[in-house]
Amino acid sequence: MTSSSWNSFEHKLWGHFKEFGVESSGSYVLAVSGGLDSMALLSVFSRLLPQAKVKVAYYHHGPSEVESQNQYRQQALEHVRQKVDELSLSGYEFVTEGSQQALVSEQEMRDARWAFLNRLAQEGDGAVIVTGHHWGDHFETVLLKMIRGTSLEGVSAFKMWQKGIFRPLLNCTKDELMSYVRDRGFLWVEDPSNQDEDYLRNWLRENWLKSLEAKVTGGPDNLARSLFKIISSAESRGGLELVFAKESKESAEGLSREWYLGLTKAEQLTAIALFLKKHQIYQFTSGQLEEIRKRLDKNQKDFTFELLRRKWVINASQIMLQ
Fold first, then answer.
1. Domain count, the chain
2. Who is most buried in 28, 156, 174, 303, counting CB within 10 A?
3. In what order do the strands lie in the sheet containing 165-166?
4. Residues 208, 64 share a domain
5. Helix, coil or strand: residue 192
6. Are residues 269 and 167 in the same domain?
7. Is 99 flagged in the annotation as binding?
8. Is 33 assigned a ligand-binding role in the annotation?
9. Is 238 one of the annotated binding-site residues?
10. Contact at 8 Å (CB) between 59 and 148?
11. Does residue 37 have a known ligand-binding role?
């Protein structure tokens, strides 16, 4: 299958494969539960990498006291197995494993599932594990971590590519996945436990977020975008602070002009704020930071100016305060 036959959604996802170099990996382990997102993942892979070596992995969470769960789990297993057979791709192999005892909590299920996926990846000489997590999953995970108590590191742990785990659908909404899967003629199996509000994630999704949407139209989406922007900004600032500390140590008299000019405008504002604090200047406004940034944005080799009651001295290599 050539790229000319891909649709726009598949072309967009292929960009993520290329971005992280995943398209050249030797083998893959696809976590496929039979639900909407994982069936979308299987469809995407069968289209973009039909010649790849892929283990389509289904983990059965074992016996349940709820009969509808037993029926669902067996139905999902057979659904995934049948779809892999229908694809008839020589490198695609259906692999399954199940717990012999009942797994009660979400954590027990997650731990058992990931132990299975990690073992398959190791057997495949470091195969890439690929999951179908989407934008909504990411948002719910961040909310859950914040409710339970976390740090920036905790909410930053969900990445598209991270330590051998690839989440190509992470920027896709559930509506996008549903439209894509329907266009491709793929069916999926709904987990009845997704309606059980005893699970905090389900309560958030079915109760709290829906109540927020009813109260403020677009509220959940706005909240998600705001959280992701805050996390991204904090991550950038944290990384910049580490680099700034290194640059400041190497340039004791001031700040490396070459390094500063290589930053984005937003990063330059952060660097100026850090530079001022290094010189025990803590009282400044965002407008003053922007004015300093504009004055530093000159092609002149040597120049000076005064702002915040200090003289700024700039030469070819350094930005200094007197």
1. 2
2. 28
3. 92-98, 53-60, 27-31, 128-130, 165-166, 161-162
4. yes
5. helix
6. no
7. no
8. yes
9. no
10. no
11. yes
- Interhelix angle 67-87/36-48, rounded to 10 degrees, is 10
Q: DSSP state, 83?
A: H
Decide: 100 and 1 in contact? Cβ < 8 Å.
no
Q: What is the CATH number of the domain that holds 273?
A: 3.30.465
Q: pLDDT tens per residue, the chain (322 residues)?
A: 556 689 999 999 999 999 888 888 879 999 999 999 999 999 999 999 999 999 999 999 999 888 999 999 999 999 999 999 999 999 999 999 999 888 888 889 999 999 999 999 998 777 999 999 999 999 999 999 899 898 777 777 778 898 889 999 999 999 999 999 999 999 999 998 888 888 888 999 999 999 999 999 999 999 998 988 888 777 666 667 766 776 666 666 688 888 888 888 888 888 888 889 888 898 889 899 999 999 998 888 899 999 998 999 999 888 999 8
Q: How far apart are the first and last CA of the chain?
A: 65
**Same domain, yes or no, for 24 and 156?**
yes
Is 124 annotated to bind ligand? no
Read off the CATH number of the domain in which 133 is found.
Answer: 3.40.50.620
> Look-up: residue for tokens 């504009």?
294
The answer to whether the CB of 248 falls within 8 A of the CB of 278 is yes
**Domain of 300?**
240-321
Considering the domain architecture, whether residues 278 and 138 belong to the same structural domain is answered as no
Instruction: Determine if residue 34 is labeled as part of a ligand binding site.
Output: yes
pLDDT tens digits along 74-100: 999 999 999 999 999 999 999 999 998
* Dihedral sign from CA coordinates of 71, 74, 80, 83: negative
